[in-house]
Specification:
The structure is a single chain. 28% of the residues lie in helices and 29% in strands. By secondary structure, the protein is α/β, with parallel strands linked by helices.
């Protein structure tokens, strides 16, 4: 698949969610913007920092007519434990087959201590109410990322 770019329609998703339903981007079209963030693993230091920062900014994000959706390869039951432990007020989606990660180009070869493996590249996509990609944050640093996203949302309203 070719790399998706700002200005493209966001690839649709249909994934099992922490709310017990399947969630699709179509559910939000014409209603709200979406911050779709991909992260490697529940309850790890960087992922927890990022999720808690979004949690702490959720009121400001909601004022921008925006929802936050997190995506990782973890199963729904693990997502629910993560949500409960950190009181996360947004939906987490389970991409156990990594198809959505592949569609968004975030399932990549990584390297740690010389060992190569496949994993999620921490990336955030901001999608407007019409389903168009308006911003892509690559190689996201978890600390302070919520502020970058809020700045981007300020340009949408």
């Amino acid at each position: 698949m070719s790399k998706i770019k700002v200005g493209n329609k966001a690839p649709d998703i249909n994934l099992p969610a922490s709310n017990g339903k399947n969630v699709s981007l179509k559910d939000f079209k014409g209603k709200t913007n979406v911050v779709l963030y991909f992260y490697p693993k529940d309850d790890t230091p960087g992922c927890t920092t990022q999720a808690c920062a979004f949690r702490d900014s959720i009121k400001d994000i909601a004022k921008k007519e925006t929802v936050v959706l997190g995506v990782s390869p973890d199963p729904v039951d693990k997502h629910n434990k993560f949500i409960e432990k950190f009181q996360l007020p947004f939906i987490l989606l389970s991409d156990t087959e990594k198809k959505t990660c592949q569609n968004y180009g975030v399932w990549v070869e990584k390297s740690m201590y010389g060992r190569k493996y496949m994993g999620v590249a921490r990336t955030t996509f901001v999608i407007d109410q019409e389903g168009t990609l308006v911003k892509i944050f690559e190689k996201v640093k978890p600390k302070g990322h919520n502020e970058e996203v809020l700045e981007c949302l300020n340009t949408l309203t």
